[in-house]
Specification:
mainly alpha
Amino acid sequence: MDGKIPPTVPSQTSAVSDTRMDFTRGEALRTPAFWAVTLALSCQALAITGITFHIVDLGAEVGLTKAEAVALFIPMALVSTIMGSLMGFAADRFRLQFLFMGMMTALGVGIASMANLDIVALRGLAIAGLGSSGGCFGTLSAVALPRFFGRTHLGAISGVQMMSIVFASAIGPSWMALFKDIAGSYQMGLYCFCIFPPIILLLNWVAPNPQLRLHP
């Protein structure tokens, strides 16, 4: 033995072992993976802000009091907290592509169920779906960009993503209010929200991890 410490070979299952190239902002924006991830997070922001701003009126449409409508956020927050912890574990062990697909599935179920709060069983699904997708949001928004595009230009890349999320958050309440004015109910707006999660789920299904694409 010459006393030297042998270099450590990272495990292929490590959360950071896939990152072998640092993308610039322009390079990242040209990949389907960037838009698959960004649209998933933006869709979550769009729906949640729209629902949150109008939760009292949404409840009133199906006969819930203000207290009953607002109380939906309590179990939703509990589900979100539990799912956030599970996602921290899952992000180190499963492909992010599948986790984003799960997030979109939960969001779609939650939005569709929120449109039918008068049905008790669907009220529970709304809590589970929106809570689960909300729990996914925090973890996936933190790990996706560095995993896919490296850390050297992470600030520039995440700036574009954050702009998209903030824009979606801003128009969510207006979207719901517009459908209320046009159709006389928030239900149609929620059903239209449901169009986005399946499309984004499909995009995440077909969008390759840019690291694996470059280095098979």
